[in-house]
Amino acid sequence: MEAKCERLLATWHDRFTEEHFNALIAPPFVVAGNGAAQQIARYRDQTVLAAARALKATYFKKDPDEPILTISTVYTAPVPQLPYAQGRTFVAIILPLPAETGLASHGFVELLIH
Question: What domain range is 12 assigned to?
């Protein structure tokens, strides 16, 4: 899983660099965002991994076979196209899905706004 996560991060590396995102690996997750490295680590520990532990204990019997990319973005300046976005955190969770789901096989994006 570590190698799969590294490949996924390599796939996104140029885009993350372009956007000035920090990223880290915590298998099965690749966690990225526009916060400082310490903020991304805190997001990994207090949000991503905490939620994963709770969900696994309740709903899942096995770990994922493929890496999961989570991207957290905080808009600190006004965004004219998104007046509601300033100061809010947007999280995209990109999951690989098997073809038998009938959904886009390249992945699924869930956008959470808090």
Answer: 1-73
For residues 70 and 47, what is the distance between their CA atoms, to the nearest angstrom?
Answer: 11
Strand arrangement, sheet containing 29-33: 22-26, 29-33, 68-74, 89-95, 108-113
Residue 93 inside a domain? The answer is: no
To which H or E segment does residue 9 belong?
A: helix 2-18
Is 0.90 topped by the overall pTM? no
CA distance 28 to 1: 6
Place of tokens 């690749």: 30
Strand pairing category for 89-95 and 108-113 = antiparallel
More confident of the two residues 61 and 98 = 61
Q: Domain count for the chain, please give it.
A: 1
Does residue 43 sit within a domain?
A: yes
